[in-house]
Amino acid sequence: ITVCDAKHLEMRLDDEKPEGVENEAVEQLAFADRVLLNKVDLVPEEAELEKIEARIRSINSNATIIRCTNSKVDWKMLLGVEAFVLDRVLGFEPEFLTDLDAEHQHDETVSSCSVKFEGELLVMGLEVWITNLLRTKGADLFRYKGVLAVKGESQKYIFQGVGMLFSGGLSDFSWGADEPRECRFVFIGRNLDKQELIDGVMACKAPDTLRFSVGDPILARVSGGFKPGVVIQQWEDGYPYIIRMEDGSGDTVYGPMDTDQFVKARA
């Protein structure tokens, strides 16, 4: 929850800082789930208040803005925000969906980026991409979250994070029989490259067809290198292949991605 002064907020947002010093007002708005726009009585013009609110939304389009005077707010609007509780995210709260497809005029350094498409993701591809994204861009990512359809899974996959702290996994909520299986992401951060984020997400989409069929003999990457096995099932637990090893162990392993890095044809 962030409290800001309606009368002076834009001046604070426009403060020029020395190189390497961040604008604290911008960062606090970017992290907020609730923004108390205080002292609105000092800004009598509705058009001016709407302009200020638009400036806030340009930095964080997902935060709920609450107007107030002398910080007087119904406490029920502040307690139990639960912004990072899976049930709330899965409920597609209005703030999460607001302007999901809209283009915004953002602050020069801090912006939000939303992605939505029908289709399913490969969970291993997503986790690899997120790991690499945090390694290279983690310092510039303030908040991010998503509700995803994962190939081979009936439950909705939730991911969310703050900075370098990331969590993701299947929820207890399943996709409805008539519900479109789709993926929705929201990122808030500094100097976001929207096209780079979109390309990264789209690269995680599950393939329409797999290279190997049930019964095909393959080589699977396991401890100790590639060993012979047979595909016994496709798309289980979010993984393209279930493989029974033929190295005498009798083990069953996952083929986490349909690439030669994990599963390849026998010579």
Automatic annotation (TrEMBL):
Keyword Transmembrane helix: no
Gene Ontology annotations for the cellular component aspect, listed alphabetically: cytoplasm
Domain CobW C-terminal: 110-205
Family as reported in the entry's similarity comment: Belongs to the SIMIBI class G3E GTPase family. ZNG1 subfamily.
GO MF annotations, alphabetized: hydrolase activity; nucleotide binding
Organism: Rhizochromulina marina
SUPFAM superfamilies: Hypothetical protein YjiA, C-terminal domain
Designated name of the protein: CobW C-terminal domain-containing protein
Catalytic activity entry: GTP + H2O = GDP + phosphate + H(+)
UniProt entry keywords in alphabetical sequence: Chaperone, Hydrolase, Nucleotide-binding
Stored InterPro entries: CobW-likC_sf, CobW-like_C, CobW/HypB/UreG_nucleotide-bd, P-loop_NTPase, Zinc-reg_GTPase_activator
